[in-house]
Write the structure tokens for this entry.
Amino acid sequence: MDRQTAIKQLEELERLGGVKKMRLAAEGWREEWQTLISILMSARTRDEVTVIVAENLFAEFPTLVELLKANPKDVSRIIGPVNFFQNKTKYVIAISRRLHEKHGGKPPRTIEELILLPGVGRKTANVFISEYGAPAIGVDTHVSYISQKLGWTKSKTPDKIEIDLKNLFPQNFWSRVNGSCVRFGKTYMSRIKKDELLQKISKI
């Protein structure tokens, strides 16, 4: 796969995935800590569900201090619709405490520091820093599936896929990869339709 072909394919993904207006879990938050927590909660959960849950959570606990002091039962009650909410309840409170005590209330802006936070993996960290303009590629199920189908990578693990994509795309394109793949994947939910379109894109 050559770089220019990959860029054209990415742009076609963006075009096809832009037909529906949708808010992803990382988008539109007033505070950076809200963005991080929303991304964390979105793991294995649809963005549409996560956004509503996060809005409810931040309405009840509008500050980081209020959230770190929250009763876990109250947090679990609110975030129950997201998958693995029991573990995420622990992470939400623990992250809030760590950000308040160690980082002045703001998430760090490096992968190395972010992944030291409770429950924050590399994908969450990459999506977070990408949202704020830094070059990064968050590899989730959409990115993994589409990048393999289009021949951008032959790797199967997120870490190796991330490396392959960073080698393939210029740095100024990195932050577009995740959002483009997610929007495409969520626009075409049918596997048959998705694969049909990806087959056409692969011939660009």
Notes: The CA atoms of residues 45 and 82 lie 6 Å apart. The radius of gyration is 17 Å. The chain has two domains: 3-19+137-201, 32-131.
